[in-house]
Write a structure and sequence with these properties.
247 residues; 9 helices; globular; binds zinc ion
Length: 247
C-alpha cells in the first residue's frame, strides 16, 4: 500500500503540473492534451510517464530537443512524498485522502506563487471546497472552530494587506481564510505564526546578500503552505512543546 500511495502521488503530481502551467494562463485543464511548450508538438503517453519520461529523455523534448524544466519531475516526486506521508500517518482512511489532497493544494499554491507571485482565486476556491467536504465527511474541525479560524486567520492578513499593501496581498488573506477552514481555531494562528517565523528567517538569510538579490521580494504563499502543513500533522506536539517551554 505504501508503494501504491507513492504511485498515486506521482500520477496526481503529473496532473498538478498541468494545473500549475495552465491555470495562471486561463487555459482549460482537460483539453487539449499536453504538448511541448517550445515546439508545441502534442505529446504521446510515453512522453508523459511521471518522472520516468523526464530521465529517459535526459530532460529534453523528444521532438525538438529543448530542455524540459526540472519543475516537472520535482513536482511529481514532491507530491508522491506528500501522498506517502498522508498514508503513513493515517493509514487507509478518508483522513489520509484529505491530508494528501491538502498537501497537493499547498504544493500548487507554492509553485504558482513562487513563479508568478500569485495566489489564484481558483486555487483558493478548490481548497475551500475540499475543506468544507472534509468538515462534512470527517467532522473535523468543528464548524464553529473552522468558521472562527477562517474569519480570524483571513482577517489578520487582510488587515496587514490593508495597512501594508507592499508586503502582503489580498491573495495571502484569502489563502489564510481557507487555511482556517482546514485547521480551525486556534491552530490557524499557530500556522500563521510559523509562516511568519519561516518567512522572516528566509528574509534575513537573503538580506545578508542584499546586493545579489536587490529588488527580489519573497512570496509569502510558500511559507503559509509550510506553516499549514506542519500544523496539520504536528499541532499537538507543537502545542505541548510550546507549553513546556513557556511554563
Ligand atoms: Zn519540443
Amino acid at each position: 500500500m505504501s508503494v501504491l500511495s507513492l504511485l498515486l502521488g506521482l500520477i496526481i503530481g503529473s496532473f498538478l503540473n498541468v494545473v500549475i502551467y495552465r491555470l495562471p494562463r486561463d487555459q482549460s485543464l482537460l483539453w487539449p492534451g499536453s504538448s511541448c511548450p517550445h515546439c508545441e508538438q502534442p505529446l504521446k503517453w510515453w512522453h508523459l510517464v511521471p518522472v520516468f519520461s523526464f530521465f529517459w529523455q535526459r530532460g529534453k523534448c523528444a521532438y525538438c530537443g529543448q530542455p524540459i524544466s526540472w519543475q516537472y519531475p520535482l513536482v511529481e516526486m514532491t507530491n508522491a512524498l506528500l501522498w506517502w506521508q498522508a498514508y503513513s500517518f493515517y493509514g487507509l482512511s478518508s483522513q489520509a485522502l484529505f491530508s494528501a489532497l491538502l498537501g497537493s493544494w499547498l504544493l500548487v499554491h507554492t509553485v504558482i506563487d513562487w513563479q508568478q507571485r500569485l495566489l489564484l482565486n481558483k486555487v483558493n476556491l478548490a481548497g475551500a471546497v475540499l475543506a468544507v467536504a472534509h468538515i462534512f465527511l470527517n467532522g473535523e474541525p468543528s464548524w464553529t472552530s473552522a468558521l472562527i479560524g477562517a474569519f480570524l486567520g483571513g482577517g489578520v492578513l487582510f488587515l496587514i494587506a490593508f495597512l501594508y499593501p507592499a508586503g502582503m496581498g489580498l491573495g495571502d488573506g484569502k489563502m489564510a481564510l481557507v487555511m482556517g477552514l482546514w485547521l480551525g481555531w486556534p491552530q490557524v494562528f499557530l500556522a500563521l505564526f510559523l509562516a511568519s517565523l519561516l518567512g522572516a528567517t528566509a528574509g534575513i538569510l537573503l538580506g545578508l546578500k542584499k546586493d545579489q538579490i536587490r529588488g527580489m521580494s519573497l512570496p509569502f504563499g510558500p511559507f503559509l503552505a509550510m506553516g499549514t502543513y506542519v500544523v496539520w500533522y504536528w499541532s499537538d506536539r507543537l502545542l505541548n512543546w510550546y507549553w513546556q517551554v513557556m511554563l
